[in-house]
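#help-structures

NK: newbie question. if I give both the sequence and a SMILES, will the prediction place the ligand too? trying with NAP
OV: yes, paste both and it writes out the complex. here, I ran yours:
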Amino acid sequence: MALVSIGVAGASGYAGQELIRLAARHPFIRVTTAMASGSTDGARTLPALTGVWDGQITPLSLDQLAAETQAVFMTLPDSVAAEVGPALVARGVRVFDIGGTFRLHDRTLRHQWYPTTPDLEIPVVYGLTEHYRRELVEARLVACPGCYPTAALLALRPLIDANLIDGDVIIDAKSGISGAGKKPSERTHFSECHGNVAAYGVLGHRHGAEIEQELRQTVTFTPHLVPLDRGLLATSYVRVRPDVDDTAIAATFASAYASSPFVRVRGDALPEIKHVVHTNFCDIGWKYDDASRRLVLVSCLDNLVKGAAGQALQNLNVAFGWDETAGLS
Ligand SMILES: NC(=O)c1ccc[n+]([C@@H]2O[C@H](COP(=O)([O-])OP(=O)(O)OC[C@H]3O[C@@H](n4cnc5c(N)ncnc54)[C@H](OP(=O)(O)O)[C@@H]3O)[C@@H](O)[C@H]2O)c1
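OV: that's the protein plus ligand as structure tokens.
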């Protein structure tokens, strides 16, 4: 089988490098083209990937991507992806966007959170692999979910789909600092975040809108930055309907993820970040109190793998009809 030619736009960033690391070992693809902003003179290499992928990073060029690749992963700032994504699709390239630009379906919400995203004529598939496999087959533009939404949705979506939740959903989530990208800000500078934990975006984070879209109900979502380089843990608090018990909760997760190699259902053995870093797994565990009907769910993943590059590659596998685990196990 001829290898599929892949481009990575945003290759020098955290998610882009992770993508190249994974893609370089994928049996059916070849990274032919890797691009960044061109803010530095000349081509660049990726020292961390020496011996894994020895290509060069060149300045972003639509023409080159369209000429050299069949599919492109975009790990770009939102405003850049908003321009590049539709242009590539129009030129016959399949696009897997890891940013937020195309994730929100509602036009008003999209304009609020991603004002540079144009109105699109082409369908966009929300790439939460485990819940959209059918839609991903033959998809032209895939909006891969963010790291916070992936962890929260994999834990909550089966309960919502089975109509087990009664009332409010509260999501309290903690992310390692690499979730914010490689460029330090006042919030993510080492001396600010080392030895610190801080909530941010309270009652006003764009990932809250994305989670609400996929759960079809309002949620209280509070993200935190914690002093880890990578990894993300979401604790979700819900109350279940009166007729629901622990067995029904366990059966719902077992059935939802029976054919999902990257979701590990842990039951009451609560997952931890150290169990999932550098993997494409999302682990889900829970504790349930029958008397109060309170259910506390814990889900965790590596923000750069299942929360970004790994899930994008998983989506590519499904979109091209390959084994979902190719290049990821
Ligand atoms: N980090 C995560 O855990 C994570 C998880 C899920 C989703 N995401 C999303 O993935 C995307 C990338 O995130 P990241 O953390 O990898 O960011 P990052 O580390 O800041 O990397 C950004 C990349 O985009 C390139 N870039 C910046 N401006 C550009 C321009 N005008 N033209 C072409 N390329 C440009 C950068 O190139 P230079 O090196 O030349 O500046 C770099 O390669 C974002 O949309 C983010 O929301 C990230």
